[in-house]
Write a structure and sequence with these properties.
Layout: E1 11-15, H1 18-21, E2 37-49, E3 52-60, E4 71-72, E5 75-77, H2 96-110, E6 115-116, H3 125-128, H4 131-141, H5 147-154, E7 157-158, E8 164-170, E9 178-187, E10 201-207, H6 209-217, H7 225-235, H8 240-245, E11 252-253, E12 256-260, E13 263-269
Helix pairs in contact: 2-4, 6-7
């Protein structure tokens, strides 16, 4: 029997504090013209633990312009090369560019490659840690190589079948950088390992979602609403298989600023299935 993972109440409320509070006026209006929205993708890499799942995540370095110091999953912006129609896939893809960015960013940021060879096998950790593959990873991160070129040269295809769309969040208008981000879930490929590779993140690790949420509530682990909601949903799952089998109806959702008493809060409508109602 499939068991859906739910975030809880449909109308969610989050405090508008710290850096976020400095981006709006007393009425909750942005203090600057809303910037254009860029496409992005992120991947919640999962593995089983006793009675639940673990997810790979890291803290963004404090100097980053967007979400400094926040807990995030591997991911980043969609690049022009991610729309390459020649990129080989193991299954039909939609949206192709977001999926390509998910595969590319996951490899760049933690060394996990969601790709298969002709027999359906993933590269293993030893192969991916070799000098050849490390040069490919760095070349991708620096923009000197393309995902399509790397995979074709290695005789691999990107594993669309390994990625499940989970959510789609659009950054609120008051942020100085805005993203339309696809969130995917994927099982850590057998024989691979997620590595702490530094770069935009620090203190990368496998986390128990429930423990991460407790640390967030205690003020020890900052995270934005999308990360919090996704962790709540993952904490409700008994296994990776349950997460991957959970029906999702992904639609874009975005928090808005509202008044609560004498202060301001972030609110969002969620349906527990990867979507919600627009304000």
């Amino acid at each position: 029997m499939q068991v859906a993972c739910h975030a809880g109440p449909v109308l969610r409320e989050f405090p508008l504090t710290g850096r976020l509070a400095e981006l709006v006026d007393a009425d909750g209006q942005p203090l600057h013209e809303p910037p254009p929205v860029r496409r992005a993708a992120t991947v919640m890499l999962l593995r089983d633990r006793q009675g639940g799942v673990e997810v790979f995540a890291f803290r963004r370095v404090p100097r980053m312009v967007f979400a400094p110091g926040m807990l995030v999953f591997p991911g980043g912006s969609v690049d022009a090369a991610d729309a390459d129609p020649a990129l080989p896939w193991d299954a039909p893809v939609d949206p192709a560019a977001a999926l390509a960015a998910a595969v590319r960013e996951t490899f760049e940021e933690c060394g996990v490659l969601l790709a298969r060879d002709a027999s359906g096998l993933h590269p293993d950790a030893g192969e991916l840690a070799s000098p050849v593959w490390e040069e490919r990873r760095i070349g991708l991160a620096e923009g000197r190589l393309t995902l399509g070129g790397v995979l074709t040269q290695a005789g691999l295809v990107a594993a669309a079948s390994a990625l499940r769309p989970w959510a789609r969040w659009v950054t609120p208008e008051f942020e100085r950088r805005r993203f339309d981000t696809w969130f995917y879930v994927a099982r850590l490929p057998e024989g691979q390992r997620a590595r702490d590779l530094g770069g935009e993140g620090e203190r990368a690790a496998w986390l128990d979602p429930a423990d991460a949420l407790e640390r967030h509530a205690a003020g020890e682990l900052p995270m934005l609403p999308p990360t919090q909601v996704c962790l709540e949903e993952l904490a409700a799952a008994a296994s990776v298989e349950e997460v991957l089998a959970t029906p999702r109806a992904v639609r874009p959702v975005s928090p808005w600023v509202d008044r609560e008493g004498d202060g301001l809060v972030l609110r969002i409508d969620l349906d527990g299935r990867g979507g919600g109602e627009a304000r």
